[in-house]
Write a structure and sequence with these properties.
Layout: E1 4-9, H1 14-26, E2 29-39, E3 44-45, H2 52-62, E4 66-71, H3 76-91, E5 97-99, H4 106-118, E6 122-124, H5 132-141, E7 145-152, H6 167-172, E8 186-192, E9 202-211, E10 230-238
Parallel strand pairs: 1-2, 1-5, 2-4, 5-6
Antiparallel strand pairs: 2-3, 7-8, 7-10, 9-10
Length: 239
Amino acid sequence: MKKIPSIFCWSGGKDSSYALNKVLKEDVYEIKYLLSTFNGTYNRLSMHGVREELIQAQADNIGIPLLKIYVHEASNTEYEKQMNEMLLYVKAKGIDTVLYGDILLEDLRFYREEKMKQQGMKCVFPIWKMNTAWLVNDFVAKGFKSYTCCINDGYLDQTWVGRLIDENFIGELPSTVDPCGEHGEFHTFCFAGPIFKKEIKIVVGEKTYKPIPIKTVDRPTPNKDAGTEGFWFADILFQ
């Protein structure tokens, strides 16, 4: 059967990595490109704060070309304009399917599907509604490695940023936190696992705190119901 040409929206984190691994194993979709969105002023991944060169290193290591969107104003309007231009570019190459690593958030899925529908494109969610406790444990069992790069202080304190996702991390998570951080509790950077040709040698650098307001392209307002006042970031660096 001919594989379906697609692009994969790439965050560089554990959910993206796990979902991409699943897709590559199933061999139904041909991932022509990874697609990431960066803050064009700081050259860092939107919300996660990961340096652009690290996301590029992931793509090079995986062996799939990386497409990049740059957002300078950090507004939904600018993001959607840049995304629409990118979608026209990939559609011209015969690609009409976009894959995402989302798991649980119905509002985010609806948003993505509506935006893709406007462009005549389809969305696929390879790990949708998977049990997140099982998923994060299987992520570790499969040999993936990732560090937390961003922590929502409404759920976790600064000691959680820059930590390796392992059995200890999973076991120590408060019951109020989704095991995959699916409600925005934490974000991660993946540097090793079955999708990579070799481990990316990195270290955790400076940890910084940024209070709200933070404008993001996917979720315009942080979860204030959780008591969020800001975010802790760990600067991931090449070793």
